[in-house]
Here is the input.
Amino acid sequence: MTTPSGGSTPDDYWRRPDTGDDAVADQPPAAPATTPPTGPTSQPPTGPSNPPPSEHAGPAPTGSTSGYSGPPPSLPPPAGWRPPVHLQPAPPRQLPPQDMADLDAVEQRSQRVTYGFGAAAGVVLLVLLCLLCSRVIF
Here is the structure.
């Protein structure tokens, strides 16, 4: 892990940037400015000294506390536009009719089997509990 240079504290990474004159007191002193190199090797700037501000760097709209101005406007598709259809699915088949009386009888049988397994498990646990208690008592 590298340590920050200058007079900054480890908490500076998590602090918000300056929002006004009040925030200056919380910040550490600024690092000294470096002087630009002078001499015949430096080339003069070729572009404008102050480039025009981009649309993203402008101030936030009034009444908003963030720089986000919302999603870009979207254009609706042309009227009648649909995605291309490559395959037509087959129409759904007819399901067989259900015998409700037979379904009720099958559900009752399965409920009896479930209750039977539960009763058998309960009897086994009761026998084990009795054996455990008899060992403790005697």
The longest helix spans residues 100-137. The chain is about 30% helix and 0% strand.
